[in-house]
Design goal:
Layout lengths: L5 H9 L4 H15 L7 E5 L5 H10 L5 E5 L3 H11 L8 E5 L13 E7 L7 H15 E10 L4 H10 L6 H11 L19
The structure holds S-adenosylmethionine (SAM).
């Protein structure tokens, strides 16, 4: 990963949009459409401080008992550990692995869900396809689900520019997932408004 203060970058950009509000109302929409009550365990990659993943789990995964987060950025890992200790996921055993998705040693026991929130842009296309195969063959239990968020806001554009990476096209991700053997349960578009004020 390029040498940037990733956590600070994410926090700075987040001040200029209504992502948090839109995210929350999207969860409400999803709660009415999908049933994740079978999900007892999950792995989340590239969680940053984990705020979104924790909110997702609180709202949509009522029976979650085990949550593993894989995140390489040390500042984000510090925030993540603090967020996990905040009592927001009562009854859930949490663990943090400070590493990249590519270097992670993998699951010891199949999980019911994998969360990939705005992080696939960091994964090379070849590794991405390999990951989707692994999700099905090694990580997920039968009937397991993958939740993907792929933003195209200036939030991700700024990050991509700083890191010298290119935008991920959601439809390509979906195509690669289908090629790996998944089917789409729900696809939900949402619009984030960005406000940049200058003096
Ligand atoms: C745009 S942030 C998304 C954070 C969080 N998931 C969210 O939606 O708010 C992308 C995260 O992916 C992490 N990341 C970057 N490269 C990674 C890799 N190879 N494996 C796992 N995570 C990675 C970054 O450190 C960062 O925390």
């Amino acid at each position: 990963m390029a040498d940037v203060n990733y956590r600070q970058l994410v926090l700075d950009i987040g001040k200029h949009d209504n992502y948090a509000v839109v995210f929350r109302s999207t969860l409400e929409d999803m709660a009415a459409k999908v049933d994740f009550s079978h999900v007892k365990s999950c792995v989340a990659f590239g969680t940053g401080g984990g705020e979104r993943e924790i909110e997702f789990a609180r709202r949509l995964l009522p029976n979650l008992r085990s949550f593993t987060a894989v995140e390489p950025d040390p500042e984000s890992v510090r925030a993540l550990r603090a967020n996990f200790q905040d009592g927001k996921l009562p009854g859930v055993e949490t663990s943090v692995v400070e590493t990249t998705l590519e270097s992670w040693s993998g699951v010891q026991k199949h999980v019911d869900a994998v969360l990939l929130f705005d992080m696939l842009l960091h994964i090379h296309i070849t590794d991405r396809k390999a990951l989707f195969q692994k999700l099905i063959t090694q990580y997920l239990s039968y009937g397991g689900v993958v939740a993907i968020i792929s933003s195209t806001s200036s939030f991700t554009r700024v990050i991509l520019e700083r890191l010298g990476m290119s935008q991920v096209v959601y439809d390509n991700l979906e195509g690669d997932m289908v090629d790996a053997g998944f089917h789409v349960v729900l696809k939900q578009d949402y619009e984030v408004v960005e406000t940049y004020l200058t003096l």
